[in-house]
Design goal:
Elements: E1 4-9, H1 20-26, H2 28-47, E2 52-57, E3 73-76, H3 82-95, E4 100-104, H4 113-122, E5 128-132, E6 138-143, H5 161-171, E7 176-178, H6 188-191
Parallel strand pairs: 1-2, 1-4, 2-3, 5-7
Antiparallel strand pairs: 4-6, 5-6
């Protein structure tokens, strides 16, 4: 068994239910097209990382989509806050015997194989790793054991998440590595630098 695990959180790609902030400016159909391209990018990148992969769907498990069972073990996200969902996914991974676990979403078009490899490499010498996003959140979080404080008492989807998480790490004496800052694509402003995602 590979002792490293990559958890991928995605939303089921349904019209009107993904990229809602972006959809306010570009419409539901265009927002869905952008999200499908983000999913494809995430799928292609994560397949190349030499770790096990758990894929967590937001609403229901798609058995026959493009996320092949050969590469991805499929689960359903728990009900509750984003923090609760992530905590439970990490908990499940550690219970199954994994020694280092990272989690990502599917909103970052700049995420690549090198950064993911860098994250798992960092966990060989540090307790945790985090990838900050330009919006004040993070696109990746990794750890070698479950630190529940990182998932609690956060204002999710706000600009304070990264800073609050660093505070938690430091107050609990958890060592960490910070990865390069990348951009999540949530708004039309985020999208303007990514012409390949636009028709």
């Amino acid at each position: 068994m590979n002792k490293s695990l990559l958890i991928i959180f995605i939303k089921n790609p349904e019209l009107g239910k993904v990229k809602t902030r972006l959809a306010k400016d570009v419409g539901d159909e265009s927002a869905l097209e952008v999200y499908l391209k983000l999913l494809e990018h995430t799928r292609c990148v994560t397949k190349e990382v030499p770790v096990e992969r758990d894929l967590y769907y937001s609403s229901f498990i798609e058995k026959d989509d493009q996320w092949a069972k050969k590469y991805f073990t499929k689960f359903l996200q728990e009900e509750g806050t984003l923090g609760y969902k992530m905590e439970k996914a990490f908990e499940k991974g550690f219970e199954r015997g994994y020694k280092s676990i990272c989690i990502i979403g599917s909103d970052c078009y700049d995420l690549n194989v090198d950064i993911l490899n860098q994250a798992f490499e960092a966990l060989k010498s540090k307790d945790s790793v985090i990838g900050p996003a330009f919006d004040g959140g993070y696109y990746l979080l990794g750890m070698n054991k479950l630190h529940t404080s990182l998932f609690r008492q956060k204002k999710w989807s706000t600009s304070s998440v990264f800073g609050d998480t660093i505070e938690d790490l430091e107050s609990n004496n958890v060592t960490y590595t910070i990865l390069p800052k990348l951009r999540d694509i949530d708004t039309q402003e985020d999208l303007k630098n990514y012409t390949s995602l636009i028709k």
